[in-house]
Amino acid sequence: MPRMVKIEDVARAAGVSVATVSRVLNEQGHVLPETQEKVRKAADELRYQPNLSARNLRKNESRIILILAPNFSNPYYSNVLAGICDVSRNLGYSTLIYNTYDSNALDQTLVTHLFQKNRADGMITLAINRDDRWLTQIAGKYPLVQCSEYVEDEPIPHISVDNRSAAKESVSMLIAQGHRRIGIVTSANRYLSSANRMRGYLDALEEADIARDESLIAYASADYSFASGKQAARELLSLPEPPSAIFCVSDILALGVIAAAGKMGLQVPWDLSVTGFDDVDYTTMFHPYLTTVSVPCYDLGRRSMQLLYDQIVQKPGAEREVYLPHKVIVRETTAQYAKQQ
Amino acid sequence: MPRMVKIEDVARAAGVSVATVSRVLNEQGHVLPETQEKVRKAADELRYQPNLSARNLRKNESRIILILAPNFSNPYYSNVLAGICDVSRNLGYSTLIYNTYDSNALDQTLVTHLFQKNRADGMITLAINRDDRWLTQIAGKYPLVQCSEYVEDEPIPHISVDNRSAAKESVSMLIAQGHRRIGIVTSANRYLSSANRMRGYLDALEEADIARDESLIAYASADYSFASGKQAARELLSLPEPPSAIFCVSDILALGVIAAAGKMGLQVPWDLSVTGFDDVDYTTMFHPYLTTVSVPCYDLGRRSMQLLYDQIVQKPGAEREVYLPHKVIVRETTAQYAKQQ
DNA sequence: AGCCGTCATGTAATCCATTACATGAATGGC
DNA sequence: GCCATTCATGTAATGGATTACATGACGGCT
Known about the structure:
Chain A is of the alpha/beta class. The first copy, chain A, has helices at about 5-15, 20-25, 35-45, 50-60, 75-90, 110-120, 135-140, 165-175, 190-205, 225-235, 250-265, 295-310; strands spanning about 65-70, 95-100, 120-125, 145, 160, 180-185, 215-220, 245-250, 275, 290-295, 320-325, 325-330.
């Protein structure tokens, strides 16, 4: 580790005091242009980099944003992450990623601890459970934004898409195609997005006067895994009266459903229509291309960081509840319902 | 932001000096058990968390590891990342992710700057170009580990798989299946892995006395994109004498190749064998399941962090060059070559 | 001329944990 | 019984940047 140049070195080289150097480099004015010139030249030549620990200690900030993410392998989260990182870099913040694996392991003590330990200036959660009401305590003390998932009915800033409407549109589209027995593969987690997508599904059925049928509701594992999507589909498709269409709350689940259908000799979309949710990259990497709901992950990430920044700098009138537009994208896994003769 | 408890508060509450508190909490001995007891009790009750900026300033460390990653959407990188994060957390380090997008934008000045700006204790690069020799300068000054990609012929610690052998095995397998015209879709980047996979491809041809044919070598874009895999495949398959098998240097490229083949009316594996590289999740999400080379991404991540830690604490005899085992996995995209009559 | 205000710059306090050094007590060897 | 050593603990210096306050110069006003 090479010896670090400190502000004192710059001051000596420029023939001024440390205060002046600091003022120049932090652009606080009250310094003669020619003095500024000297200081900048000295700082450049010595390749001076301020010691962040010292600065943060003094200013009582860290310029670090903590991101609570459940896993990186899901392309949904990696896109959000990219959005956050891009904006935070522009704003001069570093992003520290804390892998939560299972969001059930989070609690108030742990999150408080993370905040204090890392002296983070703010936090973005990517996967909070909808009943984690303790988060309100945290949000009262530290800047926080919930991205994608958020705690229901609590006034904590969050950003997401309108999952309920999106799901309803998606299922209504299936109904318009003539489907009446429509199954849902949802996830056995406590995310609000899952709950709202389920609500949207029920909304659509109700609007079309289709009675709710518990047997058409299947639960995949909490992590949206491909394998659990297959398993859930097997249950639905083994029903005496199987569905002609299945709405899935995530793309990976939908892929699992398609795989299971194939194994059972069903052709998608001819024998079964399937829709996904999120529109991750690989929905168009192989046929049939997936009909799904596109969610602007990258933008969700960007906007969360902007919202968080507004909170950190206490911008007056900062938004606390943002919904970005979604879009149902009809591709190749859905088709008109054709009753077999 | 609530007022922070500082060491002085703990000292007062425990009726000792700050030095004693520090000694107890840092387990440096020379403190009576009963005094330790008092201090720990006070610290617990006040929920004392040391101020990291202050500690780091004093100890001249940061407990932060910088990770240079090109993009998160590639599942290869997200798995490596997960491995790094898991180990670093256990060792008490935070991981700071710097998105490099394009590894060509990296240079000595930028990397030095990143080190100094973030006061990182060490760095792991995920995608350095094989000719970025300036990295040697950096490695002389700061702890550094190159994961997956590394600079060729420079003595900088690195960890990866033996790409050349893996590629050779993979192509030899195709040859054993009777293929003689074997194309390669590689990437137009400057990564050593691409170069070595190409070398392995050539090794296998040479061993089987198959002449090298430049027209069978196609370059996809630098980022391994699905679309560029399709484009490269179109070139190869439009040849007067097209290949009967294509070796791809990444799974996504292979998916692109399969898509392009399908569009041109070719059935994989009957009309064309395809192999990938990495074995990312979605190789078995739809049929045909991809024949590929499995690379232990997660373990590569884990071991990089361990190697880096050894360097940081200056463990004597720390390894500087590690290769983890790979495995050719034959699935459904490859088949015996059957010359059409 | 005398006073005040503004501006450029400097001096020194501050942020908080760590740790070198200092102190005083206790123990052990002779 | 005395000196040396070890041990428990305290006091104060330290790390580097920021910034409140101090200083001195200069210009303008009455």
